[in-house]
Design goal:
There is one protein chain. The protein is of the alpha/beta class. Helix content is 28%, strand content 23%. The chain is built from nine helices and 13 strands. It has helices at 13-17, 93-106, 122-133, 145-153, 168-175, 189-196, 226-230, 247-259, 276-284, and strands at residues 2-9, 38-44, 55-58, 66-68, 74-76, 113-117, 137-142, 159-162, 180-185, 199-207, 234-237, 267-271, 291-295. The strands form two sheets. Strands 1, 2, 3, 4, 5, 12 and 13 form a seven-stranded mixed beta sheet that branches. A six-stranded parallel beta sheet has the order 8-7-6-9-10-11, with helices on both faces. The longest helix has 14 residues, at 93-106. It starts with a strand and ends with a strand. It binds NADP nicotinamide-adenine-dinucleotide phosphate.
């Protein structure tokens, strides 16, 4: 199937693929198009399942304008009620990541407190909304007052703590007076250490991402493992593709919410493929506000 890529998703995992160390996926090959999720339109098809004009998403359409894909690599989407690019954001891999981390790992109960870092990013945006729908308290962590305001006023987080504030630790304590029952960790580093210290007995920690450590700037470590024992914590790292059987249910739920205007998100759009590298670097530094996309047309 020949696909014209219309939208490219920029995601933090791409940074990991640029390393040679052993990971859950192979490193990015040299002299090959950079890996990247895309949303686009079928131009021509030798498959009975796709026809010209169909809108599709692809886990690896790559940083390129056109791609020939095997049908199994494509998912047809209906963009009549939600914009096409949402299928690489809240209605795609990042949205499912949020769904899996909350529903399969943290499993919040009504009244519990769940903290999520990078709260206004592609994943964190959805985490807060699912946590709230379960009757739990959602506390976000984000970089700067504007992002924190958005997290509370638009995404429904009960509170959001600015990790750039000088008294971040004090603010986090004030925002979690009864401690933390669930931690959706997207950042790692110092933020993780401080939030970890707030965990309640039998707390659940979903290690989704450690973006602060991807370029080696900050180490993410536990100063004392004893806390896992004494507070009987459960900590699990996860990769969303390990949960493929959950994807249809997760996407169904998220698409349903989005179609009725109940799921909120924000996008940051870089124009043209030539803007992808700088937008990607910006995202790793927190310059993105919402889902970082590249509009390829
Ligand atoms: N496990 C999986 O299957 C899976 C799938 C998708 C994503 N992820 C992970 O989930 C995390 C979020 O991904 P995303 O796509 O939603 O990205 P994102 O949140 O849209 O963008 C990254 C955000 O991370 C924050 N950040 C970056 N460096 C930071 C630092 N040193 N300290 C504090 N915050 C920092 C920034 O937000 P602030 O300005 O608010 O700090 C930045 O906007 C990433 O770690 C990613 O690798 C994991």
């Amino acid at each position: 199937v020949l696909v014209r890529n219309l939208w490219l998703s920029l995601d933090p995992y791409m940074r990991g693929r640029m390393d040679e160390s052993k990971s859950y996926a192979a490193s990015q090959a040299l002299d090959a198009p950079m890996i990247g999720g895309t949303a686009g339109e079928v131009v021509a098809s030798n498959s009975p399942d796709f026809k010209a004009g169909d809108k599709v998403v692809c886990g690896n359409g790559g940083w390129q304008l056109y791609a020939i894909q095997k049908p199994a690599m494509l998912r047809k989407v209906d963009d009549s009620r939600v914009p096409l690019q949402a299928f690489v954001g809240p209605l795609g891999m990042p949205g499912v990541t949020a769904w899996v981390g909350v529903n399969r790992i943290i499993q919040p109960k009504a009244g519990e407190t769940v903290v999520c870092s990078a709260a206004t990013g592609a994943v964190g945006t959805v985490v807060g909304q699912i946590v709230k729908a379960k009757g739990a308290r959602a506390v976000g962590i984000a970089g700067g007052p504007e992002k924190c305001k958005f997290a509370v006023e638009e995404l429904g987080y009960d509170l959001c703590v600015d990790h750039k504030a000088a008294d971040f630790a004090k603010q986090l304590t004030a925002a979690t007076p009864s401690g933390v029952d669930g931690l959706f960790e997207n950042v790692g580093g110092q933020l993780f250490a401080l939030t970890m210290a707030r965990m309640n007995d039998f707390g659940r920690i979903a290690i989704c991402g450690l973006i602060a450590s991807y370029d080696g700037a900050q180490k993410t470590s536990l100063s004392d493992m004893r806390v896992i024992l004494t507070r009987r914590l459960m900590m699990r790292g996860f990769i969303v593709t390990d949960f493929l059987p959950d994807w249809p249910a997760a996407l169904g739920e998220l698409i349903g919410l989005a179609s009725t205007g109940k799921l909120k998100w924000r996008e940051m759009i870089a124009q043209g493929i030539e803007s992808a590298p700088s937008a990607f670097l910006g995202m790793l530094k927190g310059k993105n506000f919402g889902k970082q996309l590249v509009k390829l047309t």
